[in-house]
Amino acid sequence: MVTALEVLNLVKCYGKRRALDGLTLRIPRYSVTGLVGSNGAGKTTLMMTVAGFLKPTAGTINLLGNGPFDADVHGGRFAILPQDSELPLTSSPLELLIHYGRLQGLSLEAATKSASNILETVNLSDRAKSSIRSLSHGMRKRIMAAQCFLGTPELILLDEPLNGLDPREAARMRDFIAQRKREQTIVISSHNLNDIEQLCDHVAFIEQGKTVRFGPIATITRKASVMVYQLSTPPVDLTLFKPLLGEGGSLNFNPQTNTLTCHTVEETLSPEELNRRMVPLLLSTCGLLTISQGNSLEDEYLKQTVEVLHATRGCDFTS
Amino acid sequence: MTPLIHIWRMMCYEWFDALRSRRALVALLLYMVTSVGTMYGSISLLQKIEKELASVLQLPASDNPGAITTTLWKSKPFQRIMRQVSKNKEVYDDIQGKSPIELIYAWLSFFYMPLLVALIASNRIPEEMGSGAVRYIAFRTSRATWVLGKFLGQVSLLALAVILSGLCAYLVARLRLGRYAPLEIVWNMSFWALRAWIYSIPFVGLVMGLSLFTKSASKATIFAILSLVVLSVITGLTTLFGGDTGWRALLPYLAACFPSDYEMLLWRNNVQSLTTGSIFLLTLGFTYLGIGYTFFQKRDL
Lengths: 319, 301
What we know:
The structure holds two protein chains of two kinds. By secondary structure, chain A is of the alpha/beta class. Chain A has ten helices and 13 strands. Chain A is globular, with a radius of gyration of 23 Å. The model of chain A is unreliable at about 315-319 (pLDDT under 50). By secondary structure, chain B is an all-alpha fold. In chain B, about 80% of the residues lie in helices and about 0% in strands. Chains A and B meet through helix 2, strand 5 and helix 3 of A and helix 1 and helix 8 of B.
């Protein structure tokens, strides 16, 4: 696997508090990776440390195969949308983006073109020459996100990119990020697991400054071995379905949500084959509303991080 | 080559930002008003002194300030007074016979420049650090080029300030003195402006170097003003207590770490003194900034 970002045993202390506590992560090149974790888990600290804003206490960072961040080596190849960082208020969006583009090594012509294109993408062409001070919070946020996509950086870190955007702009931003898949490596930190599930192909669960779980979303949510059927009426006899799951398969019905979850052994039964067997019977016996592949990311996140939180905070999160 | 280009771009951006920012414009305007006011007041004072001196030295009095200055410079008692005021024989020899307008302008430029620096340059870096705006730059260029670009941007802005204040001061002098403020004085005043600008560089280094220790713009301004007060006190103490023996012998070395120790070199007329003074002042400016930068390069943004 070619990695765009490799972080090994990263430690970052703020006084006595360890914000990152030996965090290890390998982000594959051209992937879109989501960072998920509770408040204070270390996601923002990780991004800021990778970008060179924060000095690590210990550990190693390998950015685009060229060691830790160095402006001379990584300038123009790497971009970040930092959290809680204001843009200079006196500039206009166009001027500022051209300035940033020029610092990334773009020619005046290329920087102007890239800045104009990106302003159009975030729907701010009409405010290109207004002062940033006069723009709303959401508009500023769009410019903050836009600056990451100037030129063609190989790796982009986005810290809460959809926060503060109205639904229409959030959808536009989601589409825009989705278009960049397989062209650039993108890392997104977000508390919105639906966004992560929609946008990302990899996910890392971070808690207490450590990576709890990392991998492709399909693997983590068990897309190949779990199928969830939303039913209109509860099944009368579950034993009817059991033989359809093949060897090692199991069933679980949740009467509160009226969902039937089927677990299969990936090697013995494909999802397509499972549906071929299950759907006719479900339709005829209990009415089938929807089919979803794999567990929800939220379920997996809660399941896999609860033990860490329980161990460190000493309270019961399962309820 | 790239770091130099980045420094240039940061410098240009600093210029545009200063022109857009009302605060920088207000500070520049205040400096020009101060220059004009001081020039006006000084000319009035000069006129009064001239009249009194003319009466004491039994010279013919004139209504035009500066009209009898040439005669004054020839007067032995006046020379004695000026020698005592300048406290430096070489400087006295060099400024002897110069137009009072030039000297007033030179004095006010040297006097007000550190204050102007403290007001306009001290908060530029902490402002961007406090708001987080630096983070949009810090992954595009190195911290060193960012700081140097800001520093050189402020230094070049001060050049604009001295030029504008010089022009305004000359206009006031021209209006007040008429033919006793000939156009040739503009050239001499420009030369004094250049010297005052060089003198401002270590102060820019000092206040910007100090500002690298904080993320608060107001704290940085307070640091800057306090540092000027501390410098004045230390300079006064070294002048007062400096000697040849014991701990007093160390005081001149301490004084050599501060810009005021080289000010008189810039008042001289010979190239050697001017070059030496300029080199020392530039070195001090970059040293102060460098000290701040050694802390800044390791700090979290």
